[in-house]
Amino acid sequence: MKLVRTKDELRTLRRSWIFKGEKVAVVPTMGALHAGHLSLVEAAKKGADRVIVTIFVNPKQFNNPDDLDKYPRTEEDDAAKLAPYDIDALYVPTPDQIYPDGFATNVSVSGLTEDLEGAHRPGHFDGVATVVSKLFLQSRADVAYFGQKDYQQMLIVTRLSKDLDIETEVVGCPTVREEDGLAMSSRNVRLSPEERAIAPAMKREMDRAAEAIRRGAEIRVVLDSAKQQIENAGYGAVEYLELRDAETLAPVTDLSRPTRLLAAAMLGDVRLIDNIAV
Ligand code: PAF
């Protein structure tokens, strides 16, 4: 595994691989790697000849400065976790490699970004779209692996890659969960033992709600009751719990097309999100 810090080094490596006709995958991350990220690395190893993992804690996508300060930075541990996967490059760019002096371009995807996470985290998806565009173009990967845990993000990066004719195909991979159903997230380490015990309530109530909706219960009533249950379990006010079209994220009133149930809520001072297919 080669540790790469500059885009020029990355380009040189990439060129040597293209020359041999090898397929290149990228797994963009912000570090603090857990089993969810490692499942993306595994998928990348199966799907391509060469695998680049990137670690960059992207300041532009943090709407809350406190969240940026508290975001875990664990490069050495991350490198150790990646070692058994025998990836080709770990790209950990210095900030100037992503945002050089005078950087003035913003990638903004309309529609998909405006609601749900977008409504609660102003500017977040512009930051994601901008950095992901740069990582796609710097790596010139043929394929990129993203977790469905960040479902809205996965749809947005798929859209931007198509819209900007970037030749990186986006592949979404299933959310990896703890045994009690909690979705793996780099933020979970910030939960106190009491909060960690409460945390699975969100997914549990989402599963119940999905089942009731499938059985024909009235969607609004089911969602209101599930929100209440999540709050009763010890979460703060639920920011959203919504049934949406799985492709466009438009609100839905029935199950005539594939749908996704998406939720976000604070648990103590940790913001957790999750989503499941209905
Ligand atoms: O999902 C993440 O970790 C980040 O949003 C990403 C895609 C690496 C962009 O910074």
TrEMBL record:
Keyword list, A-Z: ATP-binding, Cytoplasm, Ligase, Nucleotide-binding, Pantothenate biosynthesis
EC numbers: 6.3.2.1
Binding-site residues for (R)-pantoate, renumbered to this chain: 61, 153
Pathway annotation from the record: Cofactor biosynthesis; (R)-pantothenate biosynthesis; (R)-pantothenate from (R)-pantoate and beta-alanine: step 1/1
SUPFAM superfamilies associated with the record: Nucleotidylyl transferase (SSF52374)
Catalytic residues (positions): 37
Binding site for beta-alanine: 61
Catalytic activity, reaction form: (R)-pantoate + beta-alanine + ATP = (R)-pantothenate + AMP + diphosphate + H(+)
Classification via Pfam families: Pantoate_ligase
Compartments it resides in: Cytoplasm
Keyword GTP-binding set for record: no
Note: The reaction proceeds by a bi uni uni bi ping pong mechanism.
Similarity remark: Belongs to the pantothenate synthetase family.
Record text on subunit structure and interactions: Homodimer.
Protein name, per record: Pantothenate synthetase
Organism in which the protein naturally occurs: Aliiroseovarius salicola
